[in-house]
Task: structure prediction
Amino acid sequence: MEKRLVSIAMATCNGADYINRQLDSIYAQTYQPIEVVVVDDCSEDETQTILEWYQNRYGIRVVKNSKRLGFLKNFEKAISLCSGEYIALSAQDDIWLPHKIEKLVSSIGTTSLICSDASLIDESDNIIVHSLQKSLHIPIPKTEHQFTTLAFLDYVRGCTSMFHRSLVKKAIPIPDAAMSHDWWLGICATRMHGITYLPEQLTLYRRHSTNTVGVHELWKLGSALRYFFSSDRKKIFKHERNRIQVYLDMCLYNNKSEEEYLNDLLEHYSLLAKPGFHGKAFWLIFKHRRKIFADLGFVAKCRYLLGRLVIF
Result:
């Protein structure tokens, strides 16, 4: 039987330091056929020169933006240019294990999207965290909790994800208030045929000083305290409120219970966007704890709830 084409959508911007290692790992995949679509967002380093070399050698499709689109819209453009039955998302600075695509294709089944665990590496490719899922206590919800958990906690990492192209029609264009392309794709996938999660580390996720989107280690006490006293929290909660409003405006809920839940989340974030003590905000999450935290450990659950009590 002929294998299905897998497209890799990559968004680049000033990625010259690491993009060679990522592209080499993509072309070392055990699965074929693949196509690589790269949209460069006005890089000012040697990224475009490197891409031209790979274009001449492997025939990757490279599109150069005439003006900067930003991270979210750049990925949206890359996804829209893909032609494969499956589309995998790629950062410009990670490393993929050789069997990643083969494993994702064989495991996605009839679901709309599949994602996996990852290992965290430093600037020299050294593994510093073996499992992000275990380190960050990321919940892996069962089917009945996928939407409600994801509406509150993002467990879909774009660099580990692959989805069926039928998801594109539902998810594109990505709303500006969606906060991140992978979170939005995950939400849309829960409204179609759901998400498959693989507890395997198939991606080496790089952490360095210039990450556009990094790993927010809010589950660790030190990071949680920094977040707790950060002045950025007000801005973050305003963005969260806008994200939930999009879900309501687009009627992404399936029933009255989910609509009530989203309205409570909207009130929760609206309260936390203001200074002061917010006992009601805490209660609104506690009220829906089974929908949100059903598959999260007790300690991580308590840390997250306590971090929502007060904003300064």
In short: The two ends are 60 Å apart (CA to CA). The domain at 6-206 is CATH 3.90.550.10 (Spore Coat Polysaccharide Biosynthesis Protein SpsA; Chain A). The longest strand covers residues 195-206.
